[in-house]
Each structure stands twice: as C-alpha cells, then as structure tokens.
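Exam prep: given the inputs below (a chain plus zinc ion), describe the expected output before reading on.
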Amino acid sequence: MIYLVLATSFLWLFWFSERYAWWGKTLDLRRARVLMYHMIKEPTPGAKFNGLRVSPDLFEQQVRWLSEGGWRFVTMSELADQPPSDKVVAITFDDGFEDNYLNAFPILKKYNAKATLYLVVDRHDRDWSVSKKSHHNSGELKNESKLSDEQIREMLASGVFELGGHTMTHANLAKLNEADKYNEIAASKEHLESLFSCQLSSFAYPFGIYNHQIDPQLVKKAGFESAVTTEDGIPLDVQTSLYELPRIKISGKDGFFAFKIRMRRSKRGLRK
Ligand SMILES: [Zn+2]
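Solution:
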C-alpha cells in the first residue's frame, strides 16, 4: 500500500513539475509584460478554440491580482513611448469580439486598468481561421459576435481602450503580394483613424505571421510605431524589438496558478 501511495505521489510530482516548472526564476520585473487575449467569455463545451475564451471570473481574478500586486497598466502607445520601469503590463485583445465590450470592459474599468484592442476592420461574418488552415472551416469564430462601431466608440471615449491595427480583413499576409500586403496594413490604419477620430500607433500581425514572410519595415512604413507577434515571451527590451514584440499568451485552458507563473517568465512549464 505504502508503495502505491509513494508511486502515485512521485507521478503527480513529476506531472506537476513538468507542467509548471515551479522552480524557474522570475524574469526581470523591469521587462514589460504584454498579455494576449481574444475573448472574455465562458468556454463553449466541445469547441475547438476554447483556448481563446477566458472566463470572465478568471479574467477578473487576473486583473485584480495585477492591480493589487502593484502592476501598472499601460496601452501599447504608452509602452512604446516610455523608458523601462518596474512592473508594467500591457493587456491586448485581438480581433474585436463583442465580449470585450460586454465582459472585459466593466472589469477593466473596475480596476482602473487599460488595454489595447487590435481591431479587424471588416470583421463581421468572416471566418479568418480558414485563411491559415483550410480545414478550420467550422464557422466557430465566424459565429462569435463582433464589436459594433457604437460599442467601440464607448470603449475609446472611456479612456480604458486604445485601438491598434490588425489589417482590413485578417488576411493571411504571407499569401499576398507586396502591394496587397501593404494595403491591408496601411488601409486599416487610415480607415480606423478616420472612422473613430483617433490615432493608431500599434499593429498586431494576423496569425502572428511576420519576419520571413512579412517585413516589419512595411508596418513601420505604414506609420505604426510598434507591432506585436504571437510569439510566446517577454521582451528583453521594448525599444530594440519594437516591431516584433512577443506576448504572454493567456489561455482559457489555463488556471490562475498558470497565469501567475506566466507573469513570471511567460512559459507555464517546461515546454509551453
Ligand atoms: Zn487575429
């Protein structure tokens, strides 16, 4: 019997350590954390993209923890314009899902937090997941409601959100010629700036595709002053990687403990 208990304990410890690598050291707190979210809503049972759905309760727990822990919330334009300082966090949302208004916005307001919204211009009734992988044709993301212009106006007027670019159609930029690539990037900036009378300073590469396939210089040429990727990580220095900033992926499949570990060093365990 005792051997069984010991063996089970060892197995559990092994699993726990591989998953959370709890001994890993905390990266310098002067290195800003940029967090990537998509939706703030309850997961849909059996759905494929539940990693993108963080429940409102978990999101509130995360924002409260950041606030109580002395983290300072900044938008991406503020992040790009300031020297490094202790405990700076930039919350970002990709795409423009309606739950950002319904669920995330009240929580951010409650804790005096801020966020950047990387908004797709032509976002209604589109299933962009297929332009990366054609077998992703379930319509799951297409069926999620997207933000209306009215909701976005309210979010911007509150000072809680700032807008960032995420192309016109969430195109797979790697498949376009140079002129069309540039147009997807630059037109989205012009369009949103005139529609919402604001300035866009930051860009998010659709599907995180950049570098070999998308020259970050195109983003700079379009007038953006920073760009975020979907690369997992914490930038060593914001200024030197201004157009390829990694982010910490916040997954709806992770719990609160994993979030705290990711804030320390981006990866939750040995592999992810
Ligand atoms: Zn996206």
